[in-house]
Amino acid sequence: MFNTSQAPCTSKILRVGASIAGLRQIHNNASRIAVTALPMQQAANVALPRGPAFYVLQNHDTVYLGETVNAETRLIKHLGDPTKAFAREALVVTAFPEPWLNKLAPVFLQHRFWEIAQAAGQMNVANLQTPTIPAVPEDERGELERYLEDARQALFDAGCRAFDSVFESRCRAEVVEADEDPVEPEGSDPMQIDVLVHPPAGGEFELRYTGLWARGYPEADGAFVVMPGSEFRSSINASTNKIVKTRRTQLKNAGALEEIPGSGRERLVVGVRFTSASVAGKVVTGAHVNSGVWVQRPHAQPILVVM
């Protein structure tokens, strides 16, 4: 039927009720994974598979990736959460036919799918914090990777396009401030590595992006210095301008970045001056952000001690 060297794989869809977009379960007999898809408005009235689960909340352009020991109660809780009000559909990944005995697989899937979604750049990811990286026993890694492969296929069959898609990205364009360029302007001074760091009193800024720890400060000419110890997200979104990859390569070649094992992050070991806060934010996060990700640190004013 198809001219391919790969063995064909059949996904089965069990649809409950007459609604095409209603409750359904996706599974294939060669897998220990099942995906249950349902409209969020039905979450309070559906009995979901028991046991630990990884789940995706989605609308047409945004996803939230979560893990839980009980998907049924977690989805009901999300119904009252205004930060999850965007969700129109839930896709719940569970073991099949018997449930997982612990949360290792769901926690692993949450982190790996978060990485995949960020790299794919197909949809906005609503998670405010980087998912936890679990400690995986060496003898279980192959099994977890198989879960990932099977879940990725089943999620696609269920209608999720955050990880794989033939369509153009549905990520919302970032708002670029009127007084800043989305990338470094031609003729500007290049990035400077291993600069002396002298943050002004009360003028230090911190990064607000997916839990990354980073500090920096602006200079009078509009440049922005990122301070040693700051964390860089290892992965770079596919939609990010190519200058971000260029700057990352330069930093690595100069020995300015050191990997933080098992974290998906790298640590800056020297001060680096960028042409603007916007460019600094893009290189640090690996995403198309603007200068708004840098926020002045609270209580950063010097303390006057009267003797």
* Percentage of residues in strands: 15-25%
Average pLDDT reading: 87
- Oligomer status: single chain
Radius of gyration: 22 Å
CATH topology tier name of the largest domain: GIY-YIG endonuclease
Task: Report the order of strands and helices.
Answer: EEEEEHEHEHEEEEEHEEEHE
Helix % is: 10-25%
> Could you give a short account of the major beta sheet?
7 strands, mixed
At the first level of CATH, the class of the largest domain is Alpha Beta
The CATH superfamily label of the largest domain reads GIY-YIG endonuclease
* Strand order of the biggest β-sheet: 1-2-3-6-4-5-7
Rough outline: elongated
Number of domains: 2
SSE layout and pairings?
Layout: E1 12-15, E2 24-27, E3 33-39, E4 53-58, E5 62-68, H1 71-79, E6 89-95, H2 104-120, E7 124-125, H3 141-158, E8 192-195, E9 205-207, E10 215-218, E11 224-226, E12 231-233, H4 242-253, E13 257-260, E14 265-268, E15 271-274, H5 277-285, E16 294-296
Parallel strand pairs: 5-7
Antiparallel strand pairs: 1-2, 2-3, 3-6, 4-5, 4-6, 8-15, 9-10, 9-16, 10-11, 11-15, 12-14, 13-14
